[in-house]
Specification:
The chain is mainly alpha-helical and 177 residues long. 53% of the residues lie in helices and 3% in strands. It has a domain of 41 residues. The chain is elongated and about 85 Å long.
């Protein structure tokens, strides 16, 4: 469909695509703007026009297709990237653990095998993290498990003895000692 012959209607359609704001598009197309009510009525009348609706749908179609294509590419890339990385890690682990022979340019085994334990361990670690097999632990975790924690708090001068606060276990310390 070619552009609409009515320049204001065509401008309205072009503007409407930007943000779907009919009132703004109505003003941008150069229609008389009286009261907000008259703008709403005018916008409604233009949007009811079959030629205007068809033109808006025509202009939206390639934009919708482009958005769908971009969304699909993003989705495919995120899926392919993760799978590709994990696949490469598995390949590196296999090679470094001598599970696959080293091949020459023609694809024939060279008979050379090299063990690279660091590469294998790092690849396995990254695969395990990707699968959620490992959880990072705090450096203090485990040090305080089952330990008794006592904190001394000194009160103002009239209370010269320390106040002992524990974890609920009585270790012979009281405020009255």
């Amino acid at each position: 469909m070619p552009p609409l012959k009515n320049l204001r209607q065509e401008t309205f359609c072009q503007e409407y695509l930007k943000d779907k704001n009919g009132s703004r598009s109505y003003k941008a197309a150069g229609y008389k703007c009286g009261t907000p009510g008259s703008i709403a009525v005018g916008t409604n009348q233009i949007l009811k026009n079959i030629k205007v609706r068809d033109r808006i749908m025509e202009l939206e179609a390639p934009l919708k297709r482009a958005k769908q294509k971009a969304d699909l590419q993003v989705a495919e890339k995120s899926i392919i990237d993760r799978a590709w990385v994990v696949g490469k890690l598995v390949t590196n682990v296999d090679r470094s653990m001598q599970a696959e022979p080293v091949l020459d340019k023609t694809g024939r085994p060279t008979g050379v095998y090299t063990y690279e334990g660091g590469v294998a361990n790092r690849g396995l670690e990254l695969i395990g993290k990707n699968l959620g097999m490992f959880q990072d632990k705090s450096p203090l975790e485990g040090l305080l498990t089952g330990a008794s924690v006592t904190v001394s708090v000194y009160l103002p001068e009239k209370h010269q003895k320390p106040l002992i606060v524990g974890n609920g276990h009585d270790h012979g310390h009281t405020n009255g000692d």
